[in-house]
Structure formats: C-alpha cells, structure tokens
Write a structure and sequence with these properties.
This protein is of the alpha+beta class and 447 residues long. Helices cover 43% and strands 18% of the residues. It folds into 2 domains: 9-228, Metalloenzyme, LuxS/M16 peptidase-like (Cytochrome Bc1 Complex, Chain A, domain 1); 255-446, Cytochrome Bc1 Complex, Chain A, domain 1 (2-Layer Sandwich), CATH 3.30.830. The chain has helices at 65-72, 82-90, 116-129, 134-152, 155-168, 181-186, 189-199, 215-228, 281-292, 298-305, 337-354, 358-374, 379-392, 399-407, 411-422, 436-441; strands at residues 9-14, 22-27, 33-38, 44-51, 95-100, 105-112, 205-211, 255-258, 265-272, 312-319, 324-332, 427-431.
C-alpha cells in the first residue's frame, strides 16, 4: 500500500479466521515496523512500542542506562509534561507502563478501543520526543536507587540476579538490568542522552497493537506521529535484524553465596539452557513443565508435598538470542538447604539419565498447551506476543502452530533434551544466613 511520497510495505502474516486474529505488518520507509492483531470481539486495545535495546547493550560504565532511560521517557516531551502524560491516560481509565529486559525494552498503554488514538499519540510522543533534561535525570536517580533498594530487600528476586552473575560473570548478561548503586550514581545526562539517540532510531523499534484495532488506521496514526516528530526522514532505512551471536556458556560448578540475615535461604541450582531460536525449545518447555512447572511436577511433589521442605519450589528456563539458562529455585529454612539441594540434584540427575515417564510427558504437554492459550486471553498478552516475535524472531507463529509444535513433542525428544541440558555440571547461587560449615558444604551440591 502506498501513502503520500514513499511506499509502505504491508503483509498479512497470519490470516486468522473470519478476520479474527489476523496479524499484519507494515514497514514504513523510515525502517519502522508496525504489527497488529485484530480481535473485533473485545472492547479494549493495547498499544506498545518495543525497542531493540536492553541491558545486554551496555558497557560496564553504562550498566543501568537502558532502565534509567525507560524512566526518563515518562518525564516529559516537547509537547507534554510528565503530568500531561500520566493524566491523559488516567483520564480515560487506561493503564500505562514499561519494562526493561536484558535484550529489549517495551512501553505500552492499554485503553478502551475508542481511546486508541490517544494512546498512540502519547506513547509515540514519549519515544520520539523525550527531553532527557538534567533536572529529570537528577530527580529520577533517587527513584531508581529506591527501586534497587526495594529489589535488594527481596532475596527471592536478588538470587536470580546472583545466578545470572554466577553463570555469565562480569559480562552484559551477568550484570543486573537495574544497574548498581555505583553505576546509577555515576551515569550522566550526556551518557543517557547519547544512549537514547543511538538506540531509539525507528529502525530499532517495533510498534505493536492488539485488540479491537484496524491495521490501516493504526499505521496512519503512527506514521503521522513519527513524521510530526521528524523521525522518519531516512527513507532508505531498513529495520535492524533480530539479534544473533554464538555465545557459549562454559560455567560449571560455580558457587556464589551471599550471607544475609534472612528468614529463609533462597537457592537457584542450574546450568546452561537453550537459545530462544533453538528448535529443541519446545521439548525443553515440556521438560521444564514436568520437572518444576506446577503442583503435580516432580520437584513440587518431592520437595514440598512429600517432605514439606519448602513452600515455593519451581524450575524455569530463560532463552536469549544465543544462549540460555535452566534453573531450579527453592526457598527453605537455612538448616534444610542441603536436604533441598540434594533432592533437587538427585531429581535432575535421575531425569538426565532415565528421562521422564510417558505419563508425566502427556500431562506436561496438556498443561503447557492449556497455559499457553489461557495466557493469551487479554489484549496486553497478545500485544506482547506479536511485538516480541517481530523483534526477536522477525516472524509470527499462530497459536494453533504453537499448540501443534507442543503436541508434536515426543518422549524421545524430551529424553534427548534432558540429557543435553541436565547432564551438565550445575552451578549454584544461595542467599541466606548459612554458618561457615554449611557454606563450605555448598560445593558438594555441584560436584
């Protein structure tokens, strides 16, 4: 389809059924991609802009800059003050927020379908016209330091940061998304403004909208907002490709212990997992669900139900562009850490050597299929799915295709991925008040 001077390319990526669930993509001449999923039966719409930048793109001295910038984009533009931004969305009963991850950042607003033009105008204005003023940088520094302090007060959160550091060391993936007190205190307005200019170019952005939306209308409104801001001047620009890379994690047997006077000890035992593009990820998803993904999972049954050693115990996977993690988390009384670790390690070893039973696999496939669909029941989740897919894979997969891929996982697939992932020597992160002898024994859990 063409509009005015330069031609925008529009494709239907997923046809949907009777116009429901249709996913379309338009690439504007300035390299900006716009994807929408149409769901006429709902009365809401979620509009988001995804930026191809995360804490992974920071040098050591810039650690925390991506997240700092996320805060600053809410502080005002040439057209709107911080109060104008928040009050305009509040006035229509909408919600607005943002989040920063290791490989991307997302800003979004969820509103009634009739208020979508307002959401588009406000969010586009924030991303293209942020002022990043010295006084806002100084004021927001205090807010971010409070956020770091709040996170530090939750050892269940901190232990995951500690595990990333254990696995990745002093690398961009190993450093915390929020930064540290020292790096946040050291960041200057100039550094953050340069970071904004470099990473918020339209070629690094994906616009996503889901709900009762019309694709052509969304494209027209987004294009108008970006052109008004002078952000689409490079007509020959092409979108950046999804990340790739060939990082191999070779950590094994590392132990990090943070001695804190907490009521519980918090542990993560884990090993390298799979990159998010790895075809074995479907089998790993089934394995993860059966091992620690619910109340019927093996770890929950062994650690909590049979022995009452923990309230919370689960396994998880996180996939990045070129590598991943598989981890088991548990929170327990400090004097029971070694029992919990022994049981978790025994179960991981058992599944690595023997695999899961067919019954466990059938149950996990059903659980994963159900939770996948139930997790996509609101427009916010749909916007997340299409925006992240465009940014991270450059393609879209229908829910039916996802369910087919999960259903196609065989017991042999799960056994193979269990051998590949769980047969590695694990590393361990622990936060809690362990006595010296207990702390010395932690190495036994990973040997």
């Amino acid at each position: 389809s063409s509009e005015g001077r330069a031609v925008a390319r529009t494709q239907t990526l997923l046809p949907g059924k009777d116009g429901i669930g249709t996913v379309r993509r338009t690439t504007l001449p300035g390299g900006l991609r716009i994807v929408t999923e149409t769901l006429p039966s709902v009365r809401s719409a979620t509009f988001g802009i995804w930026a191809h930048v995360g804490s992974r793109d920071e040098t050591p001295s810039l650690n925390g800059a991506t997240h700092y910038l996320e805060h600053l984009l809410f502080k005002g533009t040439h057209k709107r003050s911080a109060l104008d931004i928040s009050s305009s969305i509040d006035a229509v009963g909408g919600e607005m927020n943002a989040f920063t991850a290791k490989e991307y950042t997302c800003y979004y607003a969820r509103v009634l379908d009739t208020d979508l033009p307002l959401a588009i105008d406000v969010v586009c204005d924030m991303l293209t016209g942020a002022l990043v003023l010295e006084e806002d940088v100084d004021a927001e520094r205090g807010v971010i330091l409070e956020e770091i302090a709040m996170t530090e007060d939750d050892p269940g959160d901190v232990v995951h940061d500690l595990f990333a550091q254990t696995m990745f060391g002093d690398t961009p993936l190993g450093r915390p998304v929020l930064g540290t007190v020292d790096t946040v205190n050291a960041l200057t307005r100039g550094q953050i403004a340069r970071f904004y200019k470099k990473h918020y170019d339209p070629t690094h952005l994906v616009v996503a909208a889901a709900g009762n939306v019309d694709h052509a209308t969304v494209v027209r409104q987004v294009r108008r907002a970006f052109e008004k801001a002078g952000a689409l001047t490079r007509t020959d620009a092409v979108p950046v490709a999804p990340r790739d890379g060939h990082r191999v994690i070779r950590t094994a047997g590392r132990v990090e212990h943070l001695n804190r006077r907490t009521e519980q000890a918090h542990v993560v035992l884990g090993m390298p997992g799979l990159a998010r593009t790895d075809e074995r990820r479907w089998a790993l998803g089934v394995l993860n669900t059966a091992l620690g993904g619910g109340m019927s999972s093996r770890l929950f049954q062994e650690v909590r139900e049979k022995r009452g050693l923990a309230y919370s115990v689960y396994s998880y996977t996180s996939g990045f562009a070129d590598c991943g993690l598989f981890g088991v988390y548990a929170g327990c009384r400090p004097n029971q850490v070694h029992d919990v670790l022994r049981i978790c390690r025994d179960e991981l070893d058992k599944v690595a050597s023997e695999g899961l039973t067919d019954e466990e696999i059938v149950r996990a496939v059903g659980q994963l299929r159900g939770s996948t669909v139930l997790g996509l029941e609101d427009t916010g989740a749909l916007m997340n799915r299409i925006g992240k897919s465009e940014l991270c894979w450059g393609t879209q997969m229908s829910v039916d295709d996802m369910l087919t891929r999960i259903a196609a996982v065989t017991p042999d697939d799960v056994r193979a991925v269990a051998r590949d992932v769980l047969d590695q020597r694990p590393s361990l992160s622990v936060i809690g008040p362990l006595k010296d002898k207990q702390a010395d024994r932690l190495h036994q859990a990973v040997s």
